[in-house]
């Protein structure tokens, strides 16, 4: 669908909605708030006023994000029904609305309670659907007592956790948010105990209010809140094969106004990998290069975090977060390479690579929040500061042998020192939300980003007479500066007289300045541009058990700083890598239509979504072979990449102890690229992926979980990835009144994880690569939770 068509549609919808502002209203006001057992508002719950005679709907509304609602109805006697897809229905019978009535706070609890005439029978569903958001309530999962946020993502449909703990959604990069704020901390999800998580929200098409830098979709981890006071602490110890060891400790203390907490994580691990690659060159004679390798990387990672917050009163909050880490890596790799010419062995090569890599990082985050107008408006000001550096030093030794196995020469003895002397990132932002009456809300905000980094790449070659000598032709210095100014506005509301229809119209304006500087090269690569990014979200609550939603957004994604670095990195005599300072930003247009339905309470949940995504000037990794038969790895923009897909999510709870969750994605992907003679090529392919988990709760606190993943052949810009699958199995036991948890996890249970990629779109060469990581891995984890809590009084 074209952008202007969508924009016209949004304007028409907006005009119709604004027209509702003149809708006539009665003088009788009904108001109140729905909250959960921890004192949090239940957002977007449905409040319906029913006629006594036939229970037909006289009027209705939808609560705001904090669970507050206010509506006008004709004077009279009615039944009042409160419902939402995430909770069971509540009914207030025979209410006299002759004067304004405030029902106050109604608390939803997991058991049955009577509050005068209101009967509440409630329990959170596994999935809650809100405009633009699917929230998965993972707090009820048995895994929540003995794992972390990264493990909990294994239960989220269409979300994949890679072998290096990278997270993707529908096969694309995703941004990680913690309580609505994007996180830049590496492996932050490993540091969050699952017992602290309330829900995980999936936002597949983020609206204009989301300033997304690290992905196209958003996963927001919502932490538990409420009025709990006192001391909380937890500690965990883990061991496994391949030198895996882990120790975690976290704690916090809280009273009415003040909270302070912190923790640390220490992790040791060894990653063992192996693989092979086969490359055939067609320039001149047909030559073949076959490479086999095996590697080991011993790691020690340290993580520390601190948090404190203070409330002067219930309307404001001052919060400070700080986290830092040290990462140590000791990688080693051994390569065996064979070179053939017209199927005749020419020579072999033994390559050894050994190195040390140490990195430091720090992130600080300051937040000030002030509420106004009895919570109807809120101002938030935030400052983020980040610093990181790295010192990566490694040595290459290449020994060449003749075809008969006799030694020929030491063809390479090189040392490389790759330093990031300082990567500094700053962000200043302010956001304001303002309620307009009962049904409308305006959100505005602005932010300023700064990033400055410097990379020094020293390349040295060993000579028998002079020792190590710096190669000035291969050494370089790269300086990068980025500035982003952005502002947004968003109008949210419900249609008066049809409160089950809610909408959000937004737009974000952004000016970006990218300045990659190659020291010693006079050419300027400065790139400055403006982008305007609209969004539309519509949600219709058809009845208590089903909803329909439509989402559209445009996002701008700047190229990563390392992809703009024009200097060459020398991997081997036959492979080099470098960036492209002329890369353009990607423009991502996405739309999605979804239908969500539940049956028998929360026993069955089914979601069907159709989505389309188009990426203009898609940024891809591009490989080609030059006239010297050296493979060049670089980056380029292709005209467009697009995918049209269907997603099915099905959650079943046939009995209380058993949960079956499954998701499937079927999509058709396409790339528009060019060959070496600039002829346009259109590549198409069908991709399929599925993810299923079976979780069973046995008596005496014992539970098991089996997770299975399958990925069909996946189209890439220059080839494809072969199908693969893997399965994980976890057993957990709770002891000592659920304070102690023991878990055993088997990763890649079937020893089937293997990545095979093929490059078949090239005029000069073809290649196939295979990569494997540690075989079946097991982890034994013991975690202990201590708490001395009390509930704050309402005063």
SSE layout and pairing:
Layout (H helix, E strand, L loop, with lengths): L2 H17 L8 E9 L9 E6 L5 E6 L5 E6 L2 E9 L2 E11 L3 E8 L3 E4 L2 E4 L5 E4 L2 E4 L12 H4 L6 E3 L5 E3 L2 E7 L2 E2 L14 E7 L13 E7 L4 E13 L4 E10 L3 E24 L5 E24 L5 E26 L2 E29 L4 E26 L4 E30 L3 E24 L3 E4 L5 E20 L2 E21 L8 E17 L2 E12 L10 E5 L2 E4 L7 E14 L4 E22 L5 E22 L5 E17 L5 E18 L4 E10 L2 E2 L3 E3 L2 E12 L4 E8 L7 E5 L5 E9 L3 E15 L4
Describe the structure.
3% of the residues lie in helices and 69% in strands. With 795 residues, the chain is mainly beta. A hairpin with a 5-residue loop joins strand 21 and strand 22. The protein is globular, with a radius of gyration of 29 Å.
In short:
This protein is mainly β.
Name a few traits of the molecule.
single chain; 795 residues; mainly beta; eight-stranded mixed beta sheet; disordered N terminus
What is the tally of helical segments?
Answer: 2
Strand content: over 45%
- Report helical residue fraction: under 10%
In angstroms, what is the radius of gyration? 29 Å
Average pLDDT number: 83
Distance between the termini: 54 Å
Tell me, what's the shape?
A: globular
Classify the secondary structure makeup into a structural class.
Answer: mainly beta
Can you count the beta strands?
46
Low-confidence stretches: 1-26, 110-124, 791-795
Largest sheet: 22 strands, antiparallel, barrel
